[in-house]
Amino acid sequence: MLLDEIKSVLSFAAFNPEADDATVPWSKRFEGRKTLLINVSRNQTSWRGISKKGRFEDGGVMDGEFADIAPQRADEWRMLADGGWCVVSVNNRFIVSLENNMMRGDNCVSLLRTNPRAVLGPKYDRGKRYAICHHPETAASMLLACEESMVKVTEDVLKTIGLRPGRVCCGLFSLTEHAIHQLYVAQRGAAPPNMVLIGACEGSVSVLVQQDSQWKELRCRSGLGPDAVETALQIITPLIQKVPQGSPVYFISDGQDAKFRADIMVHLEKLGTTDMTQEDLLWRLIGMN
Amino acid sequence: MSDYLCHDFKTPRTDTSKRLPNSFKAIPILFYLCVIGGTYFMTMDWMAYKRAEKDKQQAEATKLEHDEATKKLQAEKAALDAETAKAENVAKWIEGARNLQPIIVAIARAMPPEVRLSDLSLERSDQVPANLSLAVRINGGSATEVGLLETSLSRMQYRSYSPQQSKDGDVIEYRSTLVRQEQ
Q: How far from the centroid of its chain's Cα atoms is residue A202's Cα?
């Protein structure tokens, strides 16, 4: 043990961030090392590797339950990840809700991971894992609650095949967080007072409505599946009607559900929707940031 | 990419340790500097040691050469010393073979006519043949004749060594060892 510590100091590894230190971007944690990105949906799993130079490598898609897919792809995945470290994006069994007056602060995010009751108070549910995204200018926040059992099962499955999850996140929440960051922080003042932000990832949909510069309503459905375009439109349409006509609509999406995206964009284009989707956006969000 | 940081709700680990501050990087840096410095000095010392060893071998070879030359010179000197000793013996022999007749003639001529030499003997020394043992008896002589005798011997390049004279009536007995004086 002492020898390992001495070795880690002499190799400067002791100064690098921990592989699962959530406060450090993934690309910094694994500079010069290969890592694996896994995107888990209800009936499908996709994956992609990041090379030592930080470039995306070829990935793959497989239909079926994650617990069945993982043992079949174990050898391939282990080859793609130095030390077995990977990012898992779960896109099922979660809910995103709108909350007000949530605790804010530098340590709020880490506290939400280690002691969520301290942040959420009576809103805390024992069987959930949480993530939060604050409105930069108001007291509103988006709160993600994901089934803890699913997170644990996913982590256990990965452990049995020799992989170590360094990050477990939600693809849809990442896309929505990124869109909010782009609208409110990166392009400061670009967010119009009335707007609708629609996110879609691997058959899950979220719609955020802002009226008079306030987040007013958020609806989310996870695990709809790529064929549920009509269901998604039933969620989206009433919320779009809540904002004044002509208000901008933003759409962000990624994942393997290209058909779902194309079908839904046919309807959204009629509203003059701005598509914020970029190539490999989900992979970049979970594997670079 | 932007400064957006992706959320994470994985099960937190409890066995994580706090990362060392960046200032502690000086420790491994110093370690590697010491290793490099140590390697450099060890290499330089090793090279100096090898160079000194080579110099030592060269010096030993030079010393051997000089010893051999000394031995050769000593052998030559010994041969020359032997030759010198032989030459000295020859020179002694030559000194020892010097004629006695001129000495006797010089002594006889030094005496005035009224004085007679009743006895005269000249003997070579066994140890030093160049030295002569002189014994003379002068009848009717005095100390003057002895002086004349010594003067004539000195003209012949001989010096009297521990001369002894005794007088018995008219007879003076004179004994001396004659030593040849080099010019």
A: 11
Determine whether the interchain pair A130/B9 forms a contact, defined as Cβ–Cβ distance below 8 Å.
yes
Q: Please provide the size of chain A in residues.
A: 289
The alpha carbon of residue A94 and the mean position of all alpha carbons in its chain are separated, in whole angstroms, by 11
Question: A265 pLDDT band (50/70/90 cuts)?
Answer: confident
Nearest-by-Cβ selection for A167 from B10, B13, B24: B10
Instruction: Tell me the per-residue pLDDT of B22-61, one tens digit each, with 9 for 90 and over.
Output: 889 999 999 999 999 999 999 999 999 999 999 999 999 9
Domain assignment present for A81: yes
Q: Which residue of B has its CA nearest to A19?
A: B16
Q: Which amino acid belongs to residue B99?
A: N
Q: Which fold has domain B101-180?
A: Gyrase A; domain 2 (3.30.1360)
Counted domains in chain A: 1
Spatial CA neighbour of A38 closest among A150, A176, A223, A165 = A165
Are the beta carbons of A284 and B22 separated by less than 8 Å?
no
Length of chain B (residues): 183
Contact check, Cβ <8 Å, A20/B28 = no
The interaxial angle of helices B143-155 and B101-110, nearest 10 deg, is 140
Q: Whole-angstrom Cα distance, residue A208 to residue A223?
A: 18
Kindly report the CATH number assigned to the domain that includes residue A25: 3.30.420
pTM: 0.68
Q: For A165-188, write each residue's pLDDT tens digit.
A: 999 999 999 999 999 998 888 777
pLDDT tens-digit profile of B120-172? 999 988 888 888 999 999 998 888 889 999 999 999 889 999 999 998 888 99
